[in-house]
Every structure is written in C-alpha cells, then in structure tokens.
Amino acid sequence: MPDLPERDAAAWHRLWRDLDLQPPPGLGDQILAAYDDPKRHYHSRQHLLDSLRRFQAVRGLACEPLHVELALWFHDAVYRASRSDNEEQSALWASRSLLEAGADTEVADTVADLIRATRHDPEVPEGDAALLCDIDLAILGAPRRAYHRYQRAVRAEYPGVPEILYRKGRARILRRLLGRERIYATEPFSRRLERRARANLTRELSGLAGQEEGSA
Length: 216
Prior knowledge:
- The protein is an all-alpha fold.
- The chain has helices at 6-18, 27-35, 45-58, 65-74, 86-101, 105-116, 127-136, 144-156, 163-178, 187-215.
- It has 10 helices and no strands.
- The protein is globular, with a radius of gyration of 18 Å.
C-alpha cells in the first residue's frame, strides 16, 4: 500500500490476517485511491486514518473488533457529495470484497450493515454500530478551531450547490443530530464529547440561520 504510513499499512495486512482471509488483489490501493479523490475535502484519507486511530483507543469496547475495523476502512470508500446512497454503495463494495476473499455471508452482511449505520439515522444505534458511528461523528465534539476547519471542508465538497440550498440542507442535518436524546451512544464518547458537540452544532445552526436572515 504505497504512500501509507507504515503502521497503517501494517494494520491493514494484520486485519486481513486476523480475519484468516486474503484480500482481493489491489483492494487496499483501490480504497486509498477512492479516499484520495481531490473532490474530497473532509471525507478523505485523513478522515479514514483519524477514524482508525480513534478506534484503536476504544478497541476493547467492540464485540467484534475485526468487523468494526474493516467497516471503518470501507465506511466512506464511496463518497459523492451529490448522492444519497454512498453508505449503501460502500457497504456493497465491502460485501463483494469479503465474499471474493472467501468470507462467509454472515460476516459480509455484518460488515455491510455496520457501514449502513453511518447514515446516522434518527434512531441511535446499538452495539458495534454505535461504536462505529461515534467514531465517525467524533469530529462534532472537536475544539472550536478544529470544528471550523471541518465546517469549511464539508462546504468545499459541495462547490456547485448554491449557498442558500447548502444552508438549508446542512441545517436539516444539524437539527436531526441535535434532536437525538444523545448524539453519542457509547459512554466514553458521550462523556468526553457530547457537551462540546451540542455547543458546536448549535453554534453552526445559529450561524446558518443568521446568514439566511442576512440574505432575506
């Protein structure tokens, strides 16, 4: 896996070895090439690597850590800002790859369902899906400066969307997350990040509303 830090390349090979499977030829490079698409400003290789490193810190919380780790590699493997089926397409890619590698259907389906959970539907997930989603949403609880960088990066992924439409769509997502009883389903993430995530989302939502009023 060229251009990947040694520890991450080693983790990829160790993961498949622990699964007792041999990945399809070139799969790792294909995944990295997808994350390296220049149209990605947040859902990039850096997001992938950040997610994998966060997982290592909470690995002991997973019931099936190998499945969660593989789901993280694939969770944004397909990402086009204009589409609503990215998670489904990423899940299907993971499932096909596992079946090609000789995994049984149950494993392929489990990993695919974990990836589908990152649609972040209103219902808070449970089990390993909860851990995966909390890792994916960890950026929401970042310090203010890092959160602002995240905001700008996400906006850059929608260059052709008019500002007013982007604000409405983004506000819809923020309200959905704030409407949950808990943004984070697992205790470690909720304890460390819940309060700051709600402050960040509320601040962003207020800013979006202010911009709409200013353009009215």
